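User: Hi! Is it possible to get a structure for several chains at once, not just one? Here's what I have:
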Amino acid sequence: MTVRWIFAGQLGELFDDGGPMLLIEAKSVLRRRPIHRAKAHLILSAIRHRAAELGDRVEFHQVESYSEVTTGRDDLEVVDPTSYAARRTVRRLGARILPSRGFVTTEEEFAAWATTRGNGRLLLEDFYRDTRMRTGLLMEGQAPAGGQWNYDHDNRQPPPKNAVSLGLPDPRWPVEDDIDAEVRADLDRWQAAGDIRLVGDDGPRRFAATGAEAGAALADFIKTRLGDFGTYEDATLTGDWTMAHSLLSAPMNLGLLDPRHVVETAAAEYANGNAPLASVEGFVRQIAGWRDYVWHLYWHLGEDYRTGHNALRATVDLPREFVELDAAAVEANCLRHSIGGLRERGWAHHIQRLMVIGNWALQRGYDPVQLNDWFTDMFVDGTPWVMPANVIGMSQHADGGIVATKPYASGGAYIDRMTDYCGGCRFNPKKRLGPDACPYTAGYWAFLDRVEPALRTNHRMAQPLAGLRRLADREDVVQQERERDGFH
Ligand SMILES: Cc1cc2nc3c(=O)[nH]c(=O)nc-3n(C[C@H](O)[C@H](O)[C@H](O)COP(=O)(O)OP(=O)(O)OC[C@H]3O[C@@H](n4cnc5c(N)ncnc54)[C@H](O)[C@@H]3O)c2cc1C
Ligand code: SF4
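Assistant: Yes, the chains can be modeled jointly so their relative placement is included. Here is the combined structure:
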């Protein structure tokens, strides 16, 4: 009889077909690199909660490394795991391998779609539309619900003027139990003994660690935040760290929530007249579109994609302020707040990840592989599969345009429009020269100056590069940014 070995991304019912199970908590995984405390806590809590739920049906081992349990076994069966390293291990052991689960589109369906593209680009928009047609999500016959595929012009609005928060009810938080207390004590002990290196604050566990908690988090989001999701998808308010986001990436990536159920639940809200189409479409696009797209690209682009590209020749080591999440040492208000939130919770929303933290790193030429691994270790929802397309591709343009056609670089004007950060900052988003020159605005021009040779043939960069060439004080701005003392 086979035993189903489940991994940390496979902790929900979707990965349980009723037979005996094997679950291994291996300390070596936490030992590899410094890891955010909230992330280590969440993973251990989810593993131990699953072991408790499965009771007699699971062989649960708490060991140093997987091989202590798996070497020599010939009874293992797995749902194909989510990283190259894990796939190598299960193949080496000769485990029986079932197709992966936990995404809206299967690997087989993606491969079939990719072949229809010939040698053309695998565009998110094409993949997303194909998924909608294949699954019938938000479709009316052959046409998209409401007649449009995309509601971006309704979505992505700036935050309401002079608001401190969106005024939505506080999300429903998980209640910690004895398992969490035991995890916290273990982490304290291991850290004190020098076994593991934890970064970030110890706070209440904010993300779901069981299927039941994940279901409750989904229901709470649908009831209180889905309606505003689209409108404020890209907006940021200092006093509202969740905005209308779902906080569901961590439970989905742990395998606790089936993303198909998530998008079907959201689509049903539109069908029942309980949520506006623009918001529901924006949310479905994030999951059935983006989440699946980066998962399939992880396999499609190959294992070398993470380390094999550095198109903008970015070689600066990650600074201490990032490594230690030392927000207090950062003067730029937007970055201080984003790194501070990350330090506190192991989470930041998409615009903080892309347009504040990622944009800062891009402008300053941080090593993309170091940044990729830092994101993986510091975010509660970070996994090996989710990061390369997001960091190497979208955020840092290290792949030279495979994932995104142009770098996500912007000056302070974008941050000023979409957040309330600039009002409380000692810098001025409109200034590129002088003691109050915004490091994003000046950094944008210094970045373009540095990467101009690499981007000269990119037609989407023609306009920004023409702007650079017209800049009367180009040399002064570049010199100023070269001399800027790190984060000040
Ligand atoms: C530099 C960078 C790093 C990121 N790191 C991660 C990560 O470690 N783990 C992770 O799951 N997502 C990551 N994302 C994508 C996205 O920022 C997070 O999924 C989202 O902020 C999580 O919060 P939420 O669940 O409240 O999302 P919501 O805003 O509520 O969005 C709903 C869901 O859409 C999915 N989604 C949206 N965009 C993406 C995307 N680009 N890639 C994958 N899923 C997406 C997520 O599953 C998310 O839960 C990253 C994006 C960037 C630009
Ligand atoms: S002025 Fe510049 S550094 Fe300050 S918050 Fe705005 S964008 Fe960030």
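The mean pLDDT is 97. The longest helix spans residues 277-301.

User: Great, thank you!
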